[in-house]
């Protein structure tokens, strides 16, 4: 994938729990961003390390974690990890991104 983003664009990440397979690959790649809950599904975490369990919850994506999050999205068997620009909500990594 080669989306047109610049380093100063704000990105956010979210997980579609309806598609999550609970493999935990995301938490292995980016434990600062993802965590498995007791229900066996992955969720994003806030900057304060709080699990965000509301459907469609997003968390800001720090630039230094971008590579790990993109790798987790590529390897996710459920194709449920989405990274989008905050400014226009366009998905730049994940199953809805333009290749």
Average pLDDT taken over every residue: 91
Shape: globular
Which sheet architecture does the biggest sheet show?
4 strands, antiparallel
SSE sequence, one letter per element: EHEEEEHEE
- Order of the strands making up the biggest sheet: 5-1-6-7
Radius of gyration: 12 Å
Strand content: 25-35%
**Beta strand count:** 7
Report the structural category: alpha+beta
Unreliable stretches (pLDDT < 50, length at least 5) are: 1-7
What is the terminal separation in angstroms?
Answer: 5 Å
**Count of alpha and pi helical runs:** 2
Percent helix, as a range, is 10-25%
Overview of the structural elements:
The structure is a single chain. The protein has 99 residues and is α+β, with helices and mostly antiparallel strands. Helix content is 15%, strand content 26%. The protein has helices spanning 25-29, 66-75; strands spanning 11-15, 34-36, 42-45, 51-52, 58-61, 81-85, 91-93. The strands form two sheets. The chain has a four-stranded antiparallel β-sheet. It has a three-stranded antiparallel β-sheet with strand order 2-3-4.
Summarize the structure.
The protein has helices at 25-29, 66-75; strands spanning 11-15, 34-36, 42-45, 51-52, 58-61, 81-85, 91-93.
List keywords for this structure.
99 residues; alpha+beta; 2 helices; 26% strand; disordered N terminus
Task: Give the arrangement of secondary structure elements.
Elements lengths: L10 E5 L9 H5 L4 E3 L5 E4 L5 E2 L5 E4 L4 H10 L5 E5 L5 E3 L6
Antiparallel strand pairs: 1-5, 1-6, 2-3, 3-4, 6-7
